[in-house]
Amino acid sequence: MLGAPYLWCAGFSASVPHELVAAFASSLAAPVPVPRHTLPQGAKDRLTVVRRG
């Protein structure tokens, strides 16, 4: 919805490999449910999670 606050966002720097950005975009387009309560194995040092509160 235009003008609504974001539920979440993702940003990629120019140094991020194109394959990683493509995999991320592919995951967004997949209809398969994704567990949201845990981070994938090995992602802890690569992702920053900011919780709204």
Summarize the structure.
By secondary structure, this protein is an all-alpha fold. 23% of the residues lie in helices and 0% in strands.
What's the quaternary structure here?
single chain
- Beta-strand content estimate: under 5%
Please summarize the sheet with the most strands.
Answer: none
Structural class: mainly alpha
Q: Number of helical runs?
A: 1
Q: State the total count of DSSP E strands.
A: 0
The share of residues in helices is 10-25%
Q: Mean pLDDT score, rounded? A: 78
* Spatial separation of the terminal alpha carbons: 22 Å
Task: Choose one word for the global shape.
Answer: globular
Helix-strand string: H
Query: Regions with pLDDT < 50 over 5+ consecutive residues?
Result: none
Gyration radius from CA atoms, angstroms: 13 Å
Q: Could you walk me through the main structural features you see in this protein, from its secondary elements to its overall organization?
A:
The chain has 1 helix and no strands. The protein is an all-alpha fold and 53 residues long. 0% of the residues are buried. The mean pLDDT is 78.
Record the SSE blueprint.
Elements: H1 18-29
Name some characteristics of this structure.
mainly alpha; 1 helix; 53 residues
